[in-house]
Amino acid sequence: MHSTLIFVLLVTLIGFFSSVEALKDHSHLVKFKRQNPDKSKYPPVLKTPPKSSLPQDWIDALETLQKAGKIPDIPVSTSSDDGITYPKSLKMSQKEICNWSITGCFGQNDIHEAADGVWTISFDDGPTASSPDLYDFLHSHNQAGTHFMIGSQIVAYMENAKHALQTQQQLAVHTWSHSLQTTKDNYEVLGELGWTMQIIYDLSGRVPKYWRPPQGDVDNRVRAIAEGVFNLTTVMWDAECNDWCIGDDGKSACPGETPGKSKKSVKQAINKALKKPKSPGVMILEHELNKYTVGFFTSYYPRLAGLGWKPLSVPEQFGVNWYHNAANNDDVPVNTTSMLYSTVSAAVSKANGNGNNSNNLNKVASPGSKDGTATNPPSSLAKNASSKAHSSIAVFTLTIVSVAVMLSATVF
Ligand SMILES: *[C@@H]1O[C@H](CO)[C@@H](O)[C@H](O)[C@H]1NC(C)=O
Ligand SMILES: *[C@@H]1O[C@H](CO)[C@@H](O)[C@H](O)[C@H]1NC(C)=O
Ligand SMILES: CC(=O)N[C@H]1CO[C@H](CO)[C@@H](O)[C@@H]1O
Ligand SMILES: [Zn+2]
User: Fold this and answer.
1) Ligand 2 center to 343 CA (angstroms)
2) Are 294 and 130 in contact (CB under 8 A)?
3) What residues in the chain have per-residue pLDDT under 70?
């Protein structure tokens, strides 16, 4: 009799604690293990990293969040010349989707405005062949900037990425293949962000805090993956000059657009931003694509102080650390350890074995091209929903059985 009661009590307690455990593991950020940044360790460049390239730890983090209902079930969008579109059947409200490309909606944690009086120094699409000149210029003015780098470009210009580090520039994420992220399924977004973080961590020892979506294409699903899996904050902008329209030949790729139809129109847009009120400050979208886009910057930069602007990188203006594990490039980073070295390398060799690794190293990803046309079936959210349900059912059954046993013990 006594032993039956103790047994029943034990079973009930185990049931209770396992259900508490099941509820607890909601947030799951990945940690990165540093590896040597040699090119064979990364997925093919300028392509979305395949699912087979993803370390299990990243997949587990994503699926844990999915099961907890933390990744909104927004279908992938389709990209066309007219922009992106969601399936017509989509019934969610604009607020729930919050797709910047269509309505300019910002997420509640997005950074899209500069601090008062601040002219934000930031550049997208590096590193390129023109980056070292920009970094040296900034360094000679003791000026840090935030550089939203494309993972594939880092593979192609590894030395230039290191140069950014040595010249006190902050490294941030601009995806692996420079593609439209709302057109990618959850696992694709995972690879685009994760591999860019990984290569930055490998070469710098620093875990990035910020990312900027190519062409600003983001919605609440993509944000939830960036924030929930990688603790990456989405950084947008509040002024544009369309410097990216000016190609390597100095000619415009957007003849019909203002700004962007000529170098003059780009300069006019910059001048207009320079005259903006000081509250909020200016967070202008600029690119380190070629000597022309770098040249726009180096020619107006000396005027900033005289116009009353304080030029600062993204984290400096908010007085926060540059990286998750280091205050800046000088600070000794804290090591993070949960992802095994062998996991990363094995994942890549697996991916390279499956897909073709046509490394297209010196091609600069074009920011203006509508490069997100490959669409995938809506993400496999439902597939993983069942395992949490199973454990809840087990706990429930256990409790019922315990109560029944307890009752019968009392009766006899
Ligand atoms: C995410 O990053 C922010 C900013 O660095 C930090 O304060 C926060 O603790 C991080 N969250 C987790 C769960 O590590
Ligand atoms: C961090 O890792 C690096 C490279 O493995 C190692 O040299 C360094 O001693 C480690 N630092 C700490 C504080 O553990
Ligand atoms: C908030 C937001 O931007 N919503 C838009 C998302 O995309 C659809 C079209 O597919 C628009 O109708 C929404 O207005
Ligand atoms: Zn870009």
Assistant:
1) 19
2) yes
3) 1-27, 336-412
